[in-house]
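Run log, item B.
One chain of 383 residues. Sequence copied directly from the ordering sheet:
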Amino acid sequence: MRKILLATTALVAFAGAAQAADSPVSVNVGGYVDFRAGHFSEATNNNSGAVDRRDSDFETEYRLNIAAEGKASNGIEYGGLVSLWNGAVYNASNGENGVRMDQAYVWLSGNWGKVVLGDDHGASDLNVYAPTVGEGQVDGTYTDFTDPTTLTVFQPGYLDESENSTKVTYYTPKVGNENHKVQLGVSYAPNFYDQGQNVVKYESSSSPVYRDAVEATAQYNGNWSPVNTVVSASLASASNGYTGSVREFTAWGLGMQAMYAGFTFGGSYFDAGSFNTLAGQDNDQNVWSLGVKYEFDKVALALNGLSGKGYNNAFAVAGTGADANYVDEFNALGLGATYTWFPGLTTAADLVFFGQDRADQIGSVAADKNYGHVVTIAQKITF
């Protein structure tokens, strides 16, 4: 019932403004091109020493956004976005050579709030974590240069909050006074990690892994002059898939940032519950982040850290028992800097150290510990 009510409310809001539009829709094109040179080292070799790992490579990431926007005579605004990207597929950490549709949605907003329909991040966009700059440090592109079959990719929000499942999202207006405001976002996706024109037609479908995914995030913005703060609290849940073996989950998290005199301090904690776990996998799954950023003139600097624990059943080498693929401890420390030469043209440097400790493996490959670093130099144009 909740999914029917949410979708119906969104469609009624669109229909209510249909007769009021009397100005042309404006279209804007933007995006970025990001060239990266990476030097990397990882202790665990998935090839058992048969093939040596390389230690450096180049990559280019690019995105093209086409945004449309209009305004009705009664003040209601509406629009849409299509975003094309060559980035990584979901649940992986290596990029692609092809360009694919990443986001595509329509939206409508007024004094009652905002409705977004389509493939979008959803309410999780209101979450805040440790501050980063440039390539993102512990929440950034260093994972493009690591091996997802031997190293777990932990994100500050634990769940993949860059996913763009086809969903319905509603954001309330920012309620409060000039110095203190609160906003709530709620999203519903019938199928997690499912987007575009794909339609799940049968109960026997092997995908998606999760269905009936709901997420809600509340964000507070406060001006405590001379300090500004942002605080977020979120809750997410989903039922297990149609024929999948993973368990349903409920996850929650908190985040905060405080800004003063060019400095931004912040951190987050997220508990993932039983997200992506199998029967018998009952160990804790959580992640926290902590960091600081400083901006002056054309320079931005950041230092941040991340620590997490949880299951990774996608590891190529499996052990024995329910907890064989449990990561007891993952730590990452990042240092980043950016310099803006001209509007839109930025050079970034990242250094990330990481270490992972997991259960001992059976067979010829031992992958219980993995540590290394990634150094990235990037040149980016945003337009």
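Observations after the first pass:
- The longest strand covers residues 26-42.
- The chain has one domain: 2-198+206-382.
Flagged for discussion on Thursday.
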